[in-house]
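Lecture 7 notes: from sequence to structure.
We start with the chain below.
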Amino acid sequence: MLRRIEKEINSFKKLPIEIQPGYLFNQFELIKTLNLYLNSKYESGNIDEQGDYKYFKNVVKAAAENCAKAIDFDTKDIKVLTAPGGTQVKTWLIGIGLKNYLKEK
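Predicted structure tokens for the same chain:
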């Protein structure tokens, strides 16, 4: 079983798959490239052949941060509503209890 797992890990890291005739894809290499770009680094290093720093214009980081803000879910977004025929006092008390519970957890 351990050999099977090692084989799967090695194939993930080294072997590309052909997603379409003539197009090879390697998920491990893509993840490595994405992490480098997210951290504003080049694959070949941040220093060029002449010893100068290569500036990296990161167009990925701002878009990723904006997307994270847009899909962020916060406890203040939860609202307790009164059901038809229910009392608003009970709903208010349940809402206070829920906020306290969410703060604790």
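Points to note: The chain has four helices and two strands. The mean pLDDT is 86.
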